[in-house]
Amino acid sequence: MILINDFKSEPADLRQAMLDAMKRVLDSGWYILGKEVEAFEREWAEACSTSHTVGVGNGLDAIEISLRTLGNGPGDEVITTPITAIATVLAIVRAGATPVLADVDESAALLSLDSVARCVTTKTRAVIPVHLYGQVRGAAELQRFCSSHKLELVEDCAQAHLAEEAGEVAGSFSRIAAYSFYPTKNLGALGDAGAIVTAETSLAKRASRIRNYGQSVRYVHPELGVNSRLDELQAAILRARLKWLPEFTARRRRIARRYFDELSNPLITLLSEPLEPSSHVYHLFVIRCARREALQRHLEVQAIQSLVHYPIPVHHQEPFRQIARDPKGLRT
Ligand SMILES: *Cc1c(COP(=O)(O)O)cnc(C)c1O
What we know:
Helix content: 25-40%
Largest sheet: 8 strands, mixed
Strand order of the largest sheet: 1-9-8-5-4-2-3-12
Radius of gyration: 20 Å
Structural class: alpha/beta
Bound molecules: pyridoxal-5'-phosphate
Order of helices and strands: HHEHEHEHEHEEEEEHHHEEHE
Distance between the termini: 33 Å
Strand content: 5-15%
Number of strands: 12
């Protein structure tokens, strides 16, 4: 069976590096917010060509803490996309803000700028684009739109580890951005993990406080926070896996190249090709198909696993049926 995520077939060297990493943590006798987290935070910031990483518990928390760090909360509207992991929208709700869904464009399934513009009200404070399936596209344009409308931009980079647009890495279009290291992401831990990246020291400081009960120095809590600390074990695993990320991304790109070159079936529509190879890291290769169920059955017979991403858009999920949206409506 060709699996979507086949962790058991990963290189033996990587497995050994992860075992060594676990032993290092066990031998250190220190398990939360220690040297491994600090080292990973440095290494990830460097990989993202930015100054700071704040390791957190997961991607959902990374988005919530990013919004709270910027001061977005009750009374504020935050625009995002309905074609995403529900976590993007839950994070807005958890920050106390009001989510508003803009539509996506047909060709790449990314936020449509026209739709975002229609969603802006006097209460709008931020826009969260999702670099869906691994594609960074139109981020610079959205950045210009946000700065001219005095809106914050918070990139959800959970699917786009180190994808670039015109030489800028995912996460560097916004003052603060969120990553997830859920096991199936391009860079994944052996459990839950996430990170916030920022070039601004003051934002990094505030985010590190919020992730740890709002604590500034030991037992002093100048503000309310949460418990969302990256642990040493996951940080050590992430450091081992980060060394393999460039090779894994290159392999994803080679496979995607073959799909673009060789898939030709009138029932299948591909999303648009990235404008430059570096702007897509192919977290997933998602296609549209006029006979989806039949195709899935066919693949299953060939022992190839497939999934629908996403079978139910956010606004069709029970808690979000009444969610605010583009006044023109959403396409699905
Ligand atoms: C996975 C994912 C998240 C949430 O990350 P978790 O670590 O699972 O909380 C958020 N947004 C997107 C686009 C994702 O793919």
